[in-house]
Design goal:
Family: Belongs to the bacterial solute-binding protein 1 family.
Strand content: 5-15%
Structural class: alpha+beta
CATH architecture of the largest domain: 3-Layer(aba) Sandwich
Number of strands: 13
Subcellular location: Periplasm
Number of domains: 2
InterPro entries: Bact_solute-bd_prot1, SBP, TAT_signal
Radius of gyration: 22 Å
Organism: Sorangium cellulosum (Polyangium cellulosum)
CATH superfamily of the largest domain: Periplasmic binding protein-like II
Pfam families: SBP_bac_1
Helix content: 40-55%
Distance between the termini: 29 Å
Shape: globular
């Protein structure tokens, strides 16, 4: 994925982050928000048209492509293997991957592109495309995808539409990484629960947690931070029929009744004793790996981590339907083409970059080794992917996956308002309605500034 990460060490429960630390941590995406549009005289559509020529292949002089990603964890080796294979198959194109932590990546890439030292190809999360687009950091890809013959049918309507901002495409999906509900089978068995007790609904979930509580087990640790408490909140918000922001990006919507209902559910898990108070960063996952937590809301990226824990008996399910409808938070890695500084070799690299982009998209199944759900439909429907049992289970949720909205700067607004409200409520420092209302007022002011800077989304 992923801006989330595997826990640091088994047995290290950490501590709750302070508000100041959360504000500092949001700087990763806020850096993009503060840059402002520079309005360079580069014709983005002209570059996109040149790039589209790569759909016919590349037969020019040898070129080297810079490929930037944030794959610093267990997702790095699978991508390195794919790049090595591509380089073997393409004598005149050499791809060199540069890896930076996602927070640093999103701060670095706009300035690098502006200075003419950006990459030829990059990976971005779906929720970053709008901000990168308004900064002219990345090229529109409509002509490229049309030339490649790619469309929603090759992926899914949900995945395909997540790459669009203001009616233009900016990303080609490589994967999707939703949340799932991980279950610790040893904890459940110790409490006398079998597969019949695995929760699919609110009623099932609360019944299982009450049973576990009577056995002295706090079965659903609620995290106060974005990974994964914030993602749990967003899932519950959408299940309750709510939205993060208005469609035009002008107002916060997360404080409406659906948001209060979602956050109140999380707080109630704590007040009923189903979760400890003051759960530290990664403590929910660490407790799960130490057979102290029965249910864990976390992303598909945890599959490889749990497989590597000796003796851990676990499984995964779609997240339970707590609200009125199925919905689950998800994000996706997208392949993007950053703006290039000039002609000549730059034009050749644009075409070669499309060859690499198309090849990587076609090898979506191989990328699933990183613990992701492949974006390409043919990969998800293959027998090979169905044998990846846990990923295939999480992939069942694809029709219910909800992506963060395509609003420029929204990620930074959310990080500095909503994430802090969830933190305050889950740590029992503020009531859900109070925390969300305060955050919404702050978000509205930031959104108003964004609208002046970036213009309306619709």
């Amino acid at each position: 994925m992923q801006r989330g990460r595997a826990p640091r060490e088994r047995g290290d429960a950490g501590r709750p982050p302070r508000r100041r630390e959360l504000l500092a941590g949001m700087g990763a995406t806020a850096g993009l928000l503060l840059l402002g549009c520079r309005g360079e005289p580069v014709d983005l559509r002209a570059q996109a048209a040149i790039a589209a020529g790569g759909s016919r292949g590349y037969a020019g002089p040898a070129v080297e492509l810079a490929f930037w990603t944030g794959f610093t964890g267990g997702d790095r080796p699978p991508m390195e293997r794919l790049i090595a294979r591509f380089n073997r198959e393409h004598a005149n194109i050499a791809v060199r991957m540069s890896v930076t932590r996602w927070g640093d990546f999103y701060q670095k890439i706009p300035a690098a592109v502006d200075s003419g030292h950006g990459p030829d190809v990059a990976v971005m999360h779906a929720d970053q495309l709008a901000t990168a687009a308004v900064h002219r950091t990345i090229l529109p890809l409509d002509e490229v995808t049309e030339a490649l013959g790619l469309g929603a049918g090759d992926f899914s309507e949900t995945l395909w539409s997540a790459g669009v901002f203001r009616g233009r495409r900016y990303g080609v999906p490589l994967d999707v990484h939703p949340l799932g509900l991980y279950v610790n089978r040893a904890v459940l068995a110790g409490a006398g629960l079998d597969d019949a007790a695995l929760p699919r609904s609110r009623r099932d979930y609360l019944a299982a947690l009450e049973h576990l509580k009577r056995r002295g087990i706090q079965g659903s640790w609620v995290s106060p931070v974005l990974f994964t408490g914030g993602l749990m909140f967003q899932s519950l918000l959408w299940q309750a029929g709510g939205q993060l922001f208005s469609e035009d990006g002008a107002r916060a919507m997360f404080h409406a009744e659906a948001g209060v209902e979602a956050l109140s559910f999380m707080v109630e898990l704590i007040r009923r004793g189903y979760s400890p108070r003051d759960v530290g960063q990664d403590a929910d996952s660490i407790a799960f790996m130490n057979d102290r937590n029965a249910f864990l809301w976390n992303g598909v990226w945890m599959i490889n981590t749990f497989k590597a824990v000796p003796g851990l008996r676990w499984g995964v399910l779609p997240v339970p339907v707590i609200g009125a409808q199925r919905a689950v938070w998800g994000n996706a890695h997208h392949l993007v083409l950053p703006r290039q500084p000039g002609a000549g070799a730059g034009h050749r690299r644009l075409q070669a970059a499309v060859v690499f982009l198309a090849w990587l998209s076609e090898h979506s199944l191989d990328w699933a080794a990183a613990g992701m759900v492949p974006a390409r439909r043919e990969a998800r429907e293959s027998a090979a992917f169905r044998r990846m049992t846990e990923q295939a289970i999480i992939a069942e949720q694809l029709p219910a996956v909800r992506f963060p909205p395509a609003i420029a700067g929204a990620d930074a607004v959310r990080a500095s308002t909503l994430d802090l409200a969830v933190n305050d409520a889950v740590l029992l420092r503020a009531a859900p309605r109070e925390a969300l209302s305060r955050a919404a007022r702050e978000a509205d002011a930031l959104l108003a500034g964004n609208l002046k800077k970036f213009g309306r989304v619709l």
